[in-house]
Design goal:
Elements (H helix, E strand, L loop, with lengths): L4 H24 L6 H26 L1 H31 L7 H29 L3 H18 L11 H9 L12 E4 L2 E4 L2 H24 L5 H12 L2 H8 L9 H22 L20 H21 L1 H5 L4 H16 L1
Antiparallel strand pairs: 1-2
Helix pairs in contact: 1-4, 2-3, 2-9, 3-7, 3-8, 3-10, 3-11, 3-13, 4-7, 4-8, 5-10, 10-11
Length: 343
């Protein structure tokens, strides 16, 4: 892919400025955004991604433009699924609604840093060792199977061992002090529970990066596309958090849709590895010519089609309509309503 240097540099500069302004807005005016405000911001970031996709089609051609759209949709879908975990974390630690935007913004910055590191490492490894696609493919197939089994949800209430040790080792207050990391209790400086929240969000972001980076490398090997798709997937995520809120668990088929997408990309990676095979114990170290390369437009159609079907099926499902909110989410929503009424 040959893109003008000014386009790549300019893209990162513009995106960096937008993220910096977003962070400044959160720090200067912490608040719980209304549905209208959150909806407008989400629409703005989605429109921005579409404008960037148009620029990719213009400067890089339909193949790479399609790769960006497929990568962005995949990463955005995974991010939406991960929002439910963020909601649980906020409710579990009783983070005041007024400061949840700040927590989410810090989480997004941590995610960008971690994903940037994973992307650089992934690009280097792929460049040197084509057989790594076998590993990526197998990992995604395993992840898809685990996702389809709905395993691990009962473990959400268990506190991470690292968090337990932090609570014992680090002096910590029982209550939040606004959005501060440190406060003064009985004349002594101690950390607030906000530190635990940031650590939990950071560790969660790390797990998400391990899942999502191999998935998008299955759609494109361009580090530029991988990184920009991740940036656009994370931009507007905090506003989407407030827009969707407790409605996340109504999308009962989203997890299954993502398992189908991950399995599809896993198969695509294995086929790509076979097509580029250099391992001596497979086909004598020669490329497996019969292994098909799945075109980008097919990948895009499968990804978008799967998500649309899952969303429509969830919305019309009687099970989703009867689904009850998590008790912690109901309590969080009740507190939020009480605070709004008081104001």
């Amino acid at each position: 892919m040959q893109l003008p240097v000014w386009f790549e540099v300019g893209s990162f500069v513009v995106l960096g400025i937008i993220l910096a302004l977003d962070l400044l807005l959160v720090l200067r005016r912490p608040h719980e955004p209304s549905m209208k405000e959150a909806g407008l911001w989400v629409a703005f970031y989605v429109a921005l991604a579409m404008v960037f996709a148009g620029a990719m089609f213009m400067f890089a051609g339909p193949e790479f433009g399609g790769q960006f759209v497929a990568g962005w949709v995949t990463e955005y879908s995974l991010s939406i699924d991960n929002l439910f975990v963020f909601i649980i974390i906020m409710a579990r630690f009783a983070v005041p609604r007024k400061y949840q935007q700040e927590v989410l913004m810090v989480g997004i910055i941590i995610a960008l840093i971690l994903r940037g590191i994973f992307i650089m490492l992934g690009a280097i490894v792929i460049e040197q060792f084509s057989w790594v696609f076998y590993i990526f493919g197998a990992f995604l197939l395993w992840t898809a199977w685990k996702q389809a089994q709905d395993e691990g949800e009962d473990e959400e209430d268990r506190e991470n061992p690292l968090i337990e040790k932090l609570r014992k080792v680090i002096p910590m207050s029982e209550k939040f002090d606004g959005g501060k990391l440190r406060t003064v209790v009985n004349g002594k400086k101690v950390f607030t529970p906000m530190l635990i929240v940031f650590v939990t969000i950071g560790m969660t972001d790390l797990l998400f990066a391990v899942d999502s980076i191999p998935a998008i490398f299955g759609l494109t090997q361009s580090a530029f596309i991988v990184f920009t798709a991740n940036i656009f997937a994370l931009m507007g995520l905090r506003q989407l958090y407030f827009l969707l809120g407790g409605l996340m668990n109504r999308l009962i088929y989203l997890k299954h849709a993502l398992s189908v997408i991950l399995a599809f990309i896993g198969v695509k990676l294995v086929l790509h590895a076979m097509h580029m095979n250099e391992l001596p114990f497979i086909n004598g170290g020669h490329h497996i010519e019969w292994a098909p390369e799945i075109p980008t437009y097919v990948s895009l159609a499968v990804i978008v089609g799967t998500i649309i079907i899952a969303v429509i099926a969830s919305l019309v499902s009687s099970g989703a309509q009867k689904a009850k909110l998590d008790a912690r989410l109901e309590e969080d929503a009740r507190k939020s309503k009480s605070m709004s009424d008081a104001e």
